[in-house]
Structures are given as structure tokens and as C-alpha cells.
Amino acid sequence: MYKTSTFEIKIYNRAGEKFTEVSIPYSEMDKVSKIEASIRDRNGNIVKKLKRNDISDRSAFSNGSFYQDYYLYEFTLKHNSYPYTLVYSYQRLQKEFFYLTDWTPVLRSNIPTRKALLNIEVPLDFKIHFDHYLIDNFVVDTLDESIIYSWLASYENTIDPEIYSERRENYFPNVAVVPGEFIFDIEGSYDSWESYGDYQFQLIQGLSELPASEQNRIRSLTRDIDSELEKIKILYHYLQDQTRYVNITIETGGLKPYPASYVAENKYGDCKALSNYFKSVLEYAGIKSNYTLVYASDDIKEIDKNFPSQQFNHVILSIPMDDDTLWLDCTSDGPFNQLGTFTQNRDAFVIDSNSSHFTRTPPLLMNEVIDSRTVVFRRDKNRRVVADFRINYHGEDFESLSGLSRQASETSLARIIRNYFIEDGFELIDFELIESPRDAREITLTYSAFANKVYNSYGSDIMLDMVPFYIPLFEEPEKRKLGVKIDYPINYIDTINYYIPEGYNIPNKLENKSIQNEYGEYTLRSQQESDRLTIVKRFLLNTGKYSLEEYPDFYKFIDEVYDIENSPAILLTRNIQNRKPINNAYKGN
């Protein structure tokens, strides 16, 4: 397959010059040639051309990769008079391929594409499958010996990022084209999901052999264990303790894993290699598991099931049990049978002989993402107000802190805690990150901090500020352009204990608050005992997708919660018998 790409980018000012720095990736299986580039001035005249010695060539090695056989051609071509247009082109040659193109003619979400054209020419007997959306025009022409497919697209209504929005890529024009049949290491077919599953199944055959030393180790670990679940857990802990994740994208475009024997001997691998290795370990222990494909990301990307194709970027294992399915991410140091925010609640393509199929990974539930915080205010020996925080994290914050506790240096951990986990308006004194037992799904952060802005004096009165939840700052309805998509619940619970200074009281009973609707709920309750006031509050935002039409109602709920959380919470007044007499000089004024 020969692929010629041509780009024209108009640069209007200095800020746009970053797009004159061009990188063209290539590999041994994806060779690039015929690189040409020029600059056209505002009148369309060529004023500069790219020279061969202006092109540099380097490895595309990244920090997250142990080895990869990708390289980059790079060059920069710019002009000193605006506006000007950068024009460049190059040609690719691929001898083996399983995709013709996944074409999205958008440079950045905030940069318009005035015109884009995709032409694909194939022999008359070459079968393709394609899927397209947001395309301006589509034409098919038949010639003597070939067929030409043409798509015309533009992207004029640019999209700015919005909090908890649908994927912006859903609003970009896109054309995906795959061959009906292909040879990519072995023969494969996209005629159906079943045929593609068979290709993936055959691709990993012959890669499960384990060295004798590894077999002995597996027998030793499971010899006296009767429970299959317990065997799997012991072996998963062995995987976590003995191997590490590195990205290795060589051969077969990163689709084919390294053999299990390679991982057993070298103690590292990428998601494919580690999953294949652990599948082989379980198989040797007499336990069936399935190599399973997912699209892992911070937000959920749905798989287009009407278009059989390679739409995945991660491999995990699914293990069918009598009454459930276990899910194991073999690259994770996290809890057993816990996928986490990166792979929860999404389509999973289970690879099996002649029976590959889709299922769904488990969604994170409310109690699995809860952040529970207890705050106690006190006075130190210097009569400064100190807040003692104890926060039990689950979900995304648990994943982040657990990873930091294992990987970050003490100095880096302290810096990150100080910058990202300490409440605004508090001055950190000290902290401790408390690890939970293995396979627990929570981690605890405790810290003490000076409370500089919670007890605020107004004359003889004191106003206590709320310690607010982090409420996402959603755009006002008239400014919002995209719908809302919340992939897993947001769930906070606070118990805040204020001390009441001697000689003060609360003149008015605090009003309890309660809001509940389809979007979530918010509650606030208070209780006073002697010199302590306790406020218990909860904020829950449900998983869901909400259209622009219902966004005003959604925003109203968020806005009501935000107003309560960011309003002064409690008025404390000095007891009358403790008030100082007013100076006579001010009487009558």
C-alpha cells in the first residue's frame, strides 16, 4: 500500500509557528520517502523550500517504552512575514497492513480545517469495509481496473474543551477503512468480529511455553491450595512481585506479544506480553483464562460494533468462574480483581477459539469511589487554629496515591501532596500516607495544617467557613456547547468538627439541607455538643450522559450545591455577659 499525504497549514502569527515543527513517524514495516516541503507567502508564491540536510532522523524512543522500532523524520520550516502557508508531503510504503486508514482531518480541536480530501484507490477485486461520519461528500468511481473512493470533509465549528464533556473526537469528521482480508504476520479477516477474534486467537498460539524453572515455581506456590480462586490470587501476586511493565512495540505493529518464556526469563513485558504470560501460568495451573481486548483511557470510548476492526489499545485477562468473572490487568500493581478507572465499564472483546465475543467490564459503584474525610479543628499551644484531616480515598485518588507511594521519592511525594491534596487556605504542618493491606481498595492520608481562613472575625462575632467539597466548575448553560458524560460516580462524605471558642455560642439553629434528583444528591446535617459543632455532609454525582437540552437542569443542581458549599456556614456570637462595655466616647454615635 502506498499512501501519499499532503498538508497545507496557514500560519497567522508567532503562536502558530509550533505547527511548522513537523515530525513524521516511520518504522521498518512503515517506510517513508519523498518528503517535500515549501513555504508560500500571502500571495501564494513559493519563497522557501526544504533541503535534504534540513531533515533530521532519530529514534522515537519514549520514557514509557523499553524498546520500540519507531523512528522520526523531523524538520522545521518557517517564514518571517505573516500570514504564510506551510505545504509539505510525503509517501508511505506498507508491505503488510491491517488498516488502510483511520482518517481524522483535524490538527487541533480549536483549529479549523477548511478543506480535506481523502482518495483511496484499490483494485476491482480488493474488498474493503469502511465507516464514516460528519463527512461533507462521498463519491465512488469505477475505472478500468480499479475503484476510487473519495471523501470530502471540513471542520469549521471548532470545539473548546469543557469539563466532563463527551469525547471531542465524536465531533470530528472521520473515515475508517479496513481490508476485508489481510496478511499481518498471519492471514486475517475483518468480515466479522468472529473472524477478527479468530485472527487474534491464532496470533498468540505457540507463545505459551514456560521454562521448567517457572513450572516448578507454579507447582510450589499452588501445591497445597484447593481453592481455585485462592490459586489465582497467589499467582497474581507472584506476577505483580516478579514482573514489571514496559512498553515494547516491535514486530507486527505491536499486536503480537512476546512469548511467555521471554517474560519468565526477563521479568518484564508490555500489556500483551504480561497478559499472555499470566494466561500461560494459569493454564499450567489448570485454570482457563481469556486474552481480552479493551480500549483503556481516562474516559470511556465506545467500540463501534457495526464495524469489525482493531479499535483497542490494551490487553487484560478475563477468567470465567462458576458464578462470576474475574478481571485482571496484568500491568497493574493494584488490588486483585480490580480494574480501576482506566478500564471500568467498557466494551471488552474476549478472544477464544471460534467463539470470540463482546462483554462489558464491571462499572465502578458508588461505594468503590467514595472519598471520606474527617476534619477536627483545635487550638495548638500558641492558640493558632489547627485542622487535623483524615481522608480515606477510593477510586481515582486511591489509584494515584497508591502509585505515588510505590514509585515517587519522599521529596517528590511531599511536593505532590502539598500541591494537589491539601485544601486551599490551609498551611501544611505534616502528613502521613498510610498504606492499607494488600488488595485493599483504599488508602488513607492524614495531615495537620494551620486553618488560616476558617475562623473569621467580624467585630465581636466569628463566622465559620465551610470546608468545601471539590465541586466541578461547570460552564453556565448559555456557554455550554457539549453534553455531559460522567463515566463513574463522584462520591464525597465529610464529617467536620468545629470547636466553639469559650464565651461564644450559636444564636440560630442551623438549617439542614437536602437535594436529591436524577443527577445526584446533596445532604447537610449538624449537631452541637458542648463546645463542639459537628457537620456531616455528602455529595453524590451519578454516572450518566446528559444532553444539552437537559443541561440547564443539571447545572441548576450543581449550582445549588456549589452555593451551599461556598457560603459562610455558621455565625458565632459572643455571650452577652462576656462582651466588653462600649467606650463612653462612642455613646450616641
Description:
With 589 residues, the protein is of the alpha+beta class. It folds into 3 domains: 2-179, Immunoglobulin-like; 193-360, C8orf32 fold (Roll); 367-574, Jelly Rolls. It contains 8 helices and 38 strands. It has an 8-stranded mixed sheet. The termini are far apart.
Helix content: 10-25%
**CATH fold assignment of the largest domain:** Jelly Rolls
Largest sheet: 8 strands, mixed
Number of strands: 38
Summed up, the domain count is 3
Produce the secondary structure layout:
Blueprint: E1 2-11, E2 21-27, E3 31-40, E4 46-49, E5 56-59, E6 65-68, E7 70-76, E8 84-93, E9 101-103, E10 113-123, E11 128-133, E12 137-142, E13 146-155, E14 174-179, E15 181-184, E16 186-189, H1 193-203, H2 212-222, H3 228-242, E17 244-245, E18 247-249, H4 260-266, E19 268-269, H5 271-284, E20 290-294, E21 314-320, E22 325-328, E23 347-350, E24 357-360, E25 370-379, E26 385-393, H6 395-407, H7 410-420, E27 426-434, E28 443-451, E29 455-458, E30 461-465, E31 484-486, E32 490-499, E33 504-505, E34 513-517, E35 520-529, E36 532-541, E37 544-546, H8 551-565, E38 568-574
Parallel strand pairs: 6-18, 17-19, 25-32
Antiparallel strand pairs: 1-8, 2-7, 3-4, 3-8, 5-7, 9-14, 10-13, 11-14, 12-13, 15-16, 20-21, 20-23, 21-22, 23-24, 25-26, 26-28, 27-28, 29-30, 30-38, 31-37, 32-36, 33-38, 34-35, 35-36
